[in-house]
Write a structure and sequence with these properties.
By secondary structure, this protein is an alpha+beta fold. The protein has 2 domains: about 180 residues, OB fold (Dihydrolipoamide Acetyltransferase, E2P) (Beta Barrel); about 190 residues, OB fold (Dihydrolipoamide Acetyltransferase, E2P). Helices cover about 15% and strands about 35% of the residues. The strands form 3 sheets. Strands 1, 2, 3, 4, 5, 6, 7, 8 and 9 form a 9-stranded mixed sheet that branches. Strands 10, 11, 12, 13, 14, 17, 18 and 19 form an 8-stranded mixed sheet that branches. The protein has a two-stranded antiparallel sheet with strand order 15-16. Strand 18 and strand 19 form a beta hairpin. It is globular, with a radius of gyration of 28 Å.
């Protein structure tokens, strides 16, 4: 996604815009308030995405403190500095209607917290819209440059509300712009730079369980002799979706539950009718916990793109790549808290990274028999005469490879069974699992 720059008192875009003093755009995301401390050459030495702790990627020798709260660079100093040496910033995502493109714009502290009595900084503009019952993403905004005490600042003012048709078009184009985004290629900070850290989550190193990602599927109750079965379908079929379940051990399930509980607690739609504690969201398969993530094949009468799939090196896999049960994967999901016919958090599937793949083997309706075997020799070679028995065993001169160079054994394909995933049986079992995780601080 391209970055919109401010240079020489104008907005500059690398491709689609001429230099402009002002532009009209829709702010689709206000980003996360972050901090950055730079040296005299302008290179960032230490930074924080959550405004609480330095990023894990900050080099040890340039990290200024263990917490932003304790950092001397976050305190106003005398001589040459306006404000604190460590500066606030955020990155907003803009949709430009004139060119139908999506781009990013980095805003510094002077454009976030301006005290100008008339002109609105980002946060003052955001509060102004809320006071009038409006949201940023529903308004066409005039974004313009101003000069205050010799400092270039970015200000905002509303133009008009968007129509329903415009809103739909913008959301679809925004999703299309993010369609090639590889969440596994970026750092955690970049993933969360433009969204709340409770909304998106990466689930690491779990086993795929009945994945259906190569095409849309829906559950047909009449299939399989009336027993029901998920079958391929067109995206326009009611309840069609892309989905996969996944298997976790208890430690992984506890960590995922904790992240879901945080998203549930911080939901902007939450009110007094919501229960305090997120209900147990997982089923059980033998000794493992089963989670499920899915994406509707249609959303608001528009066909959605299949979740992007990547291999371990972050190379995009074909859209019809057939993931298999037992393959080890990472999942990138969006948490969607809800309070409809009960409360919970669904996981909207955004992407899959395949760490270890078990090749797909179609099931055969036949039993093995004697006869033709593909690849077998067509003629029987005469057996060689046995060598005379040696007096001593031969001494090998080969050097054993280092242990780390010995390849892992190729796992056997997981056989598909008709065993159904069963939920935990008793309500007391559900409560005890949740209480245990909470007691462990998960």
């Amino acid at each position: 996604m391209d970055q919109l720059e401010v240079q020489d008192g104008v907005f500059k875009h690398p491709d689609v815009l001429p230099p402009l003093k002002m532009l009209e755009a829709v702010i689709t995301n206000v980003g996360t308030l972050s901090r950055s401390y730079a040296g005299s050459n302008g290179v960032s030495l230490c930074w924080s995405v959550d405004n609480k702790f330095p990023s894990e990627e900050v080099p040890t020798d340039t990290k200024q403190a263990a917490r932003c709260l304790d950092c001397k660079q976050s305190i106003k100093q005398h001589g040459g500095f306006k404000g604190t040496p460590c500066k606030f910033f955020t990155v907003v995502r803009l949709f430009l209607p004139a060119t139908e493109t999506v781009c990013l714009l980095r805003l510094g502290a002077v454009s976030l917290f301006s005290r100008h009595p008339v002109y609105l900084s980002l946060f003052k503009y955001h509060d102004y819209l809320k006071t009038n019952g409006e949201e940023l993403e529903d308004i066409l905004t005039n974004i313009y440059l101003g000069d205050d005490d010799g400092v270039t600042k970015i200000y905002f003012k509303p133009v008009r509300p968007l129509t329903k048709a415009e809103l739909l078009d913008i959301r679809q184009l925004n999703l299309a712009a993010l369609g090639n985004h590889n969440p596994f290629h970026l750092t955690i900070e970049e993933n969360f730079m433009s969204d709340s850290d409770t909304k998106y989550h990466v689930i690491n190193n779990v086993a795929a369980f009945y994945p259906r990602l190569d095409k849309p599927y829906f559950y047909d109750k009449t299939a399989n002799n009336g027993k029901g079965k998920s079958v391929p379908c067109d995206a326009t079929t009611p309840n069609a979706c892309f989905e996969t379940s996944f298997l976790m051990d208890e430690k992984q399930a506890a960590a995922l539950y904790s992240a879901m509980q945080k998203a549930y607690t911080n939901s902007p739609h939450r009110d007094d009718s919501w229960a305090d504690k997120l209900p147990q969201p997982f089923n059980m398969h033998e000794e493992q916990f089963v989670g499920k993530a899915k994406l509707k094949a249609m959303y608001k009468n528009e066909v959605t793109n299949a979740p992007a799939q990547f291999d371990a090196s972050n190379t995009r896999l074909p859209d019809d790549f057939m993931l298999t049960t037992g393959s080890m994967i990472n999942l990138f999901v969006e948490f969607v808290p809800y309070n409809i016919n009960g409360t919970g958090v669904s996981m909207r599937l955004k992407g899959v990274q395949v760490l270890k793949y078990i090749p797909y083997t179609p099931l055969s309706p036949f039993q093995a028999q004697e006869g033709f075997v593909n690849g077998a020799a067509q003629q029987t070679e005469p057996e060689a005469e046995p060598e005379p028995e040696a007096m001593f065993a031969p001494v090998s001169t080969a050097v054993a490879p280092p242990e780390e160079d010995i390849p892992d054994a190729v796992p056997e394909p997981v056989k598909r069974t008709s065993k159904k995933v069963k939920p935990l049986k008793k309500e007391t079992d559900l409560a005890s699992v949740i209480d245990k995780w909470a007691a462990d601080g998960s």
